Amino acid sequence: MKKILPIILSSFTACVSVNAWQDSFESRSTAWESSESSVLKLVDVDSGAPHAAITDGAKCLELIGTKGHAWNQIAIRKDLVHEIKAATTLSFDVYVPQSSLPESGWAKLQVRMYGGQGGSAAFDITSDLELDLNAAGGKSYHFTWDYAGDPSFDDNIYWAHVGIVSIASGGSMSPIYIDNMEFSNANELDAHLQTDAFLLSDEWSLIWHDEFEGKKGAAPAEHWRPGAIWRKDGTWRDSTLAPEEAYLDGRGHLTLRTRYENGKRLAPYLVTSEKGTYSQSESVTFGPGDEGIFIEWRANVSQFKAHAAWFALWLFSDNPYAGDASLGSEIDVMEYVPYQGDDYSMMDKFNAAIHIKDGGKSVKPPRPYGLTSFDENVWNTWGLYWTKDIQVYYLNGEPFWVNRNKDYISTDDTHGIRLTVEIANGDPAKGNKNHWGHAVGRFEDNPADRLPSYAYVDYVRVYRKNSK
Ligand SMILES: [Ca+2]
Ligand SMILES: [Ca+2]
């Protein structure tokens, strides 16, 4: 996770349904405005557009830079604030003839979005499309930008502009062609997935669950095994692994306690599988299978407030970081990282993400920092609907993230379930910040009202759609 700056989270509704906005540049005029150094035209093949430039209908938008500038703002629109606020993603098709590009160096198209309430912009973000100078004749591109996921994006705005800029290391870049522009909402969903009520149908069966019933103080069932064992020294990050800190409360809940005792930062870390540690017969693992699966956790973090610790509900495969989701992934359904600083609070937000490469790019919900707001004082239910094509992440029965990026959707069935507390002290050399970017200081310096901290789990349930 990147450094967290003071943020104002938008009042994002979990399940938004809007009609996608589309412009195919078919009408006589366009609301795109040229600059003093550009000319915009709606063109068809008869008026000189390359066939490949028209991807929808009969016309496209031709952008001509009239000056030889390496940097050229060639088009701007000022009337899309409603569409920008309602959607999460901007996409369009681009065609660039090779003759439009410099012979050497580099060239890119930059899309810029900025907006605010009053005179000055509250945010100003860009996304670049690198162009291939060596594509013989020319090349088609599809530009997609999940701008709502940019940490700086703010939808609490009254105006917004979208600009298209051409930038080349030398010479000019003209003409280029654009078609099939769309604002879409990545969270739009089929009606039957807009709540988790489909689980009640007889098409779904509960295939595995733990309700955490049992005597007060008892250890959880054996399928919850100590994890992070590969280090062989009983530690993980800055914690001492302490499976005995996970116990039943006698009222149907699993308690995960973390505390500072005898110089040790005790933290429980429970897994249903861990490659290299547990055999297949000792492991319980899941994946989308052929029909899809739904995994549900009910948890409570109202007593989990220790800075430098975090609690997570997640899945981890045998082979999570191959860079190929078909081989497995890390699926963080919720990570709660309590922190209250002078500038911002993380107390009522959780993180979700999918990782397929250690230290590599991850995908997150399309909102600033991938963080979702929730009521941290009550019980909440997190759910993951997972097929080979889509993952829908639910909070209290409503989607908070729809992931259709198949590059990150694991089709592998070796994912174990994890209920973990991890501890990482802030680094004094980096302003006492942990690797999440929060100035958490040291776990052991938490005041008495935050230590011990407790996370509670009411149940973990796994449903599978019945075979047809
Ligand atoms: Ca068109
Ligand atoms: Ca229970």
From TrEMBL:
SUPFAM superfamilies: Concanavalin A-like lectins/glucanases (SSF49899). Belongs to the glycosyl hydrolase 16 family. PROSITE patterns: GH16_2, PROKAR_LIPOPROTEIN. This is GH16 domain-containing protein. InterPro entries: Beta-glucanase-like (IPR000757), ConA-like_dom_sf (IPR013320), Glycosyl_Hydrlase_16 (IPR050546). Residues 145-468 form the GH16 domain. It comes from the Bacteria. It comes from Coraliomargarita algicola.
